[in-house]
Amino acid sequence: MTSPLHILLLESDTGDAKLIQELLTPQFAFELTHARTREEFAAALGGTRFDLILADYSLPSFDGLSALELALARSPDVPFIFVSGSIGEDAAVEALKRGATDYVLKTRLSRLVSATWRALRQAEQRADLEAAQQSLRRSEIYLAQAEHIAHVGWWERDFATRRVSLSDETCRIFGVQRVDLPGWHGRWLELIHPEDRSRAAEAAAAARVPGGPRYDIEYRIIRPDGSLRLVHSQGDVSWDDLGRPLRQFGVMQDITELRQAKQDLRASEMRFRTFVDHATDAFFLLDDQSTVIDANRQACADLGYTRQELIGMHRRDFDVALDEASIERLKDRVVAGEAVTFETRYRRKDGSTFPVEAHVGHFEESGHRFSCVARDITERKHAEQALRISEERFRTLVQFSFDVYWESDAQHRFTRQEFTERLTDAPAPGSEIGKTRWEIPYVEPDAEAWRKHRETLDAHLPFRDFVLARPTADGGKRFVSVSGLPVFDEAGRFVGYRGVGRHITEQKKAEEALRRSQAYLAEAQRLSNSGAFAFNKERSLYWSEQLYRIWGFDPEDEIPSRDAWWQRVHPDDRDNARQELQNALRERHDFAMEYRIVLPDGTLKHLRTIGHPFYTAAGDLVEVVGTTLDVTERKRAQAEHQRLRELEADLAHLNRLSIMGELTASLAHEILHPIATARNNARAGMRFLAMNPPNLPEVMDALACVVRDADRAKDIVARIRDHIRKKPPRKERFEINDAITEVIVMARNVVDMNHVSVRTSFRDPMPALWGDRVQVQQVILNLLLNAAEAMSSMEGSRQLSISTDFSEPDGLLVEVRDSGPGLAQEQLQDIFKAFYTTKPSGIGMGLSICRSIVDAHGGRLWAEANHPRGAVFRLTLPAAEAGS
Question: Can you tell me the distance from the alpha carbon of 120 to that of 114, in angstroms, rounded to the nearest whole number?
Answer without folding.
Answer: 10
